[in-house]
Amino acid sequence: MASYAATINVDASPEEAFAYLREPEHRLEWDPSVRSVSDRGDGSYAVTVGFYGKAIDAVQTVESEREPDEIVLTTTGKVKGRDVITIAPRDGGSSVTIELDVQLKGMARLLDRGLQVAFAGIGDNIATEMTKQLNRQRG
């Protein structure tokens, strides 16, 4: 399993950050590893991510949300994952903590150690892009 956690400070209010981050199609804007997101019509989303030049298909579902404080997403398919996004007020904006866990399935689990190394860079890219996008949401 690979894990990543970071806290970013952004200009968007907790309400603005929550409204933006709860929309799965916005993941294309703040997660550079995501190639596509499409609504499956059943409350879940088909997500394709790029990893070492390969496309990995998965299904992402909102496990829970508590407006405007927290969003928990689960991912199933060729990978298993859980994303916890916590939003707290901060002077003039928000503090957003992202905790990402992902695990490859089947024989691919042999690559878990390499996944952790790669995931650190992926997580840093996510934190950078999320900061940019949420700073644009200030309305």
Secondary-structure map:
Blueprint: E1 2-10, H1 14-21, H2 27-30, E2 34-39, E3 44-51, E4 54-66, E5 70-77, E6 79-90, E7 93-104, H3 112-136
Antiparallel strand pairs: 1-7, 2-3, 3-4, 4-5, 5-6, 6-7
Q: What does this protein look like?
A:
The chain has 139 residues and is an alpha+beta fold. It has a single domain, classed as Alpha-D-Glucose-1,6-Bisphosphate, Chain A, domain 4. It has three helices and seven strands. It has helices at 14-21, 27-30, 112-136; strands at residues 2-10, 34-39, 44-51, 54-66, 70-77, 79-90, 93-104. A seven-stranded antiparallel β-sheet has the order 1-7-6-5-4-3-2, with helices on one face. A hairpin with a 2-residue loop joins β3 (44-51) and β4 (54-66). It starts with a strand and ends with a helix.
Summarize the structure.
The protein has 139 residues and is α+β, with helices and mostly antiparallel strands. It contains 3 helices and 7 strands. It is globular.
List keywords for this structure.
single chain; 139 residues; alpha+beta; Alpha-D-Glucose-1,6-Bisphosphate, Chain A, domain 4; seven-stranded antiparallel beta sheet; 3 helices; 27% helix; globular
